[in-house]
User: Fold this.
Amino acid sequence: MQSPVSTKFELNGKAVEAKVPARTTLADCLRHHFMQTGTHVGCEHGVCGACTVIVDGAAVRSCLMLAVQAEGSKVTTVEGLSNADHLSALQTEFRKHHALQCGFCTPGMLTTAHALLTDEPDADRERIREVLSGNICRCTGYIPIVEAVYSARAAYRKNAKPEAGQ
Assistant:
């Protein structure tokens, strides 16, 4: 039996600490210790993108990262992209463009797109497709997802580099 290891990081703007076995993935830590169940676990091999979260500004597959590797980092899950009162501009565009169906891939698509638009608010459709190509969706055919991300660009330009939750 492994002894638990402590890890501290910022999760959706709040300092958190977890004592987990050293081999616990960040995805499992987020879901089971912090109840951030928007982080979905699909393939558990980093291929599908359902578990994508933002770590220090970068889109990361949380099934491939150990929770202890998040020590001292800023982690944002899909829950951290908006507040309780309002959807983010990106989430609003997903809704407007019907860019989801079953919803399983949606959290990973949103976090990946948020990281992209934060760094590249003028990303064109080709760039959006390229970045989202690592996120598998079995339902939508990707066209509404790309259009939603493309439509959300203006909000990222206006705010320069929006923080999660805005």
Observations:
- DSSP finds five helices and five strands in the chain.
- The mean pLDDT is 92.
- The CA atoms of residues 124 and 130 lie 10 Å apart.
- The beta strands are 4-11, 14-21, 52-55, 58-61, 74-76.
